[in-house]
Design goal:
By secondary structure, this protein is α/β, with parallel strands linked by helices. The chain is 36% helix and 14% strand. It has twelve helices and ten strands. Strands 3-4-5-6-7-8-9-10 form an eight-stranded parallel barrel, surrounded by five helices. A two-stranded antiparallel sheet has the order 1-2. Strand 7 (145-150), helix 5 and strand 8 form a beta-alpha-beta unit. It is globular and about 50 Å long. The mean pLDDT is 97. Bound molecules: NADP nicotinamide-adenine-dinucleotide phosphate (NAP).
Length: 333
């Protein structure tokens, strides 16, 4: 496993990290969750991503139990705040009250004194940015959070946050967590250029497009048993917008490119996002340990310009590139 800096910060992260959205506390039983975490550790993954909202806060508990007893200094634990964690008006968003309460809950569930990266899980249009950034800065000073990041913020929102941080002397954002894959490239036009200039690294999610880029979803066929598309606890809903025959047909056409390089389709997908030097880490999900073992082999793979061009030609018009697709809710959820 190779490691990269998280943006321009001094923190090193594994270039493939493990995330537990949809799976821990929901789609998979605790034994499978633990087996996936163990496989990640065995394969050299040191970076783990979760969020307060995943599985109604149970995902953090499962991860906390799975990592308990390990040398804390050997791990980078990332979590997030913004989406609702309870029924109250203040159980959401990026207010001083919710951020402060949420980090305490996350630390308790993760059974740790601090998280390495704390991420604003979306932009909160109902809280002054100064309030959010000052609260994050306080958490850094208290040692509860080591670095600050955001997720799915636009270039304009990131730029504004950096300006405030510089003017007020607050800790700066070091990372952004966007969706990024061969099929979803909306960060390339605006977010990546700004991030390169400002030293912000992308910690990208759904690099395998939730499993679509493995090629296991065949056009015109029902989804394979046990896959995310059959997970009625939530996964099926999230993956459904990707399951269109025009996308699935083109994905099948990537098979020869993967085979020519001796890669599985999942490895090709993860390697593809890692070719972008602004990517600090690709967060992969897994419902079984074999998937983790498959996906980590993408670390260190180099795809030449000719291969990258061939991938573009195969995918053609199904690739989404519109920067306007980076959106946070207009009001708190
Ligand atoms: N910031 C955000 O808003 C946000 C949003 C989404 C995700 N994330 C983060 O990113 C992480 C990864 O997201 P993701 O789970 O969508 O990523 P992904 O890696 O694109 O998809 C993971 C899923 O694909 C299937 N899969 C993975 N490897 C496979 C393989 N080798 N062979 C066959 N199937 C395979 C598995 O689902 P099945 O086996 O069930 O089919 C697995 O759970 C999350 O856990 C979370 O930490 C963040």
């Amino acid at each position: 496993m190779e490691h990269r800096h998280l943006g321009r910060s001094g923190l090193m992260v594994s270039e493939i990290s493990y995330g537990n959205w949809i799976t821990h506390g929901s789609q998979v039983e605790e034994d499978a969750a633990r087996a996936c975490v163990q496989a990640a550790l065995d394969e050299g993954i040191t970076t783990f991503d979760t969020a307060d909202v995943y599985a109604g806060t149970r995902a953090e508990e499962v991860l906390g139990r799975a990592l308990k007893g390990l040398r804390r200094e050997s791990l980078e634990i990332f979590t997030k705040v913004y989406w609702p964690t309870g029924p109250g008006r203040n159980d959401r968003g990026l207010s001083r009250k919710h951020i402060t309460e949420s980090i305490h809950g996350s630390l308790r569930r993760l059974q740790t004194d601090y998280v390495d990266l704390y991420q604003a899980h979306r932009y909160d249009a109902e809280t002054p940015l100064e309030e959010t950034l000052k609260t994050f800065d306080d958490l850094v000073r208290q040692g509860k959070v080591l670095y600050i990041g955001v997720s799915e913020w636009t270039a304009e929102q990131i730029g504004r946050a950096l300006k405030i941080a510089d003017e007020m002397g607050f800790d700066r954002i070091v990372s952004n967590q966007p969706q990024y894959s061969m099929l979803w490239r909306v960060i390339e036009a605006e977010v990546v250029p700004l991030s390169e200039k400002e030293g912000i690294g992308q910690v990208v999610f759904s690099p395998i497009a939730q499993g679509v880029l493995t090629g296991k979803y065949q056009p015109g066929q029902p989804p394979p048993a046990g896959s995310r598309a059959t997970d009625e606890s939530g996964g099926a809903n999230f993956i459904s917008r990707l399951l269109h025959d025009d996308v699935l047909t083109r994905v099948q056409d990537l098979q020869p490119i993967a085979a020519d390089h001796g890669l599985t389709m999942a490895q090709l997908a993860v390697a593809w996002v890692l070719q972008n030097p602004n990517v600090s880490s690709a967060i992969v999900g897994a419902s079984r340990p074999e998937q983790v073992k498959d996906n980590v082999k993408a670390s260190g793979v180099i795809l030449d310009a000719d291969t990258m061009k061939k991938i573009d030609e195969v995918l053609g018009s199904v690739v989404e590139r519109d920067p306007a697709k980076t959106v946070s809710p207009a009001r708190r959820p």
